[in-house]
Design brief:
Elements (H helix, E strand, L loop, with lengths): L17 H4 L2 H18 L6 H8 L3 H8 L2 H11 L1 H13 L6 H20 L2 H16 L2 H26 L4 H20 L3 H4 L11 H18 L14
Length: 239
């Protein structure tokens, strides 16, 4: 299967000096500036010129490295593929955790902890906010990113939950995954907890990670083990 980046044309080799093109720190600066601006303003509100200004590089260098804006947008998510890979590696190891409760905890830790570790860095903060924004607004560009980078990850976690709880329950596992994702995304993108706790909590405090894992694990168990809901009567009631 080809990389999602293969769908985009190769970057245009605009007129850029060799000295400018040979500085890898400038490529990283462009990616970080794009992450920050896209997360704050949204994909359509940001131009390549704004990204070049924020990165303090010539506009031509953005095209030299990445090509069109959509390719740059996808390159941000490609840059963070290592976090997705860590989540999948930990998910694969979760099956050896022990009993079903321990396995569920290990699955949720694989889902949560690499994201919180990433979020702890300044660069990761921009990326986390970008993901939260794109999940919320669902532009065509965001939909493409979700399908390319996040749907395979989602299917892997849903399959793991369905296998753990056995039976014909993949539909429930998909609901459980969606609810778990909502809790995780909200935790990493909403800093109101400091205000709501009257200053007793700090946003993204390290100790919250364990509580988030317990909260999501309990929620998944409640969904997967709940009695089957009655099938609604499709026929209209006669009067």
């Amino acid at each position: 299967m080809s990389s999602p980046q293969a769908q985009f044309p190769a970057p245009v080799k605009a007129s850029v000096s060799k000295a400018a093109a040979d500085r890898p720190d400038r490529r990283e600066a462009i990616l970080l500036a794009a992450e920050r601006l896209f997360s704050q303003q949204g994909y359509h509100a940001v131009s390549l010129r704004q990204i070049a200004l924020a990165a303090e590089v010539p506009l031509a260098l953005v095209g030299y490295y990445f090509g069109p804006k959509q390719a740059l947008f996808h390159a941000i998510f490609e840059h963070w593929q290592a976090t997705i890979a860590r989540r999948l590696q930990r998910l694969q190891a979760a099956g050896q955790a022990g009993d079903s409760d321990q396995t569920l905890t290990a699955i949720v830790e694989a889902f949560v902890e690499p994201v919180l570790e990433m979020r702890a860095s300044a660069e990761g903060e921009y990326y986390a906010l970008l993901v939260a924004r794109e999940l919320a607004f669902r532009t065509p560009e965001a939909q493409s990113v979700l399908e390319d980078y996040f749907d395979p990850l989602a299917h892997a976690f849903i399959d793991a939950l369905a296998e753990l709880f056995a039976g014909d329950c993949r539909a429930r596992a998909a609901w459980a995954y969606q609810f778990a994702l909502g809790a995780l995304i909200h935790h990493i993108s909403d800093d109101r907890v400091a205000r709501l706790s009257l200053g007793q909590n700090l946003a993204n405090a390290p100790e919250a990670a364990g509580w988030l894992v317990r909260f999501i694990s309990a929620g998944i168990g409640a969904v997967m083990l709940a009695p089957a809901a009655p099938v609604p009567n499709a026929s209209p009631l006669s009067h």
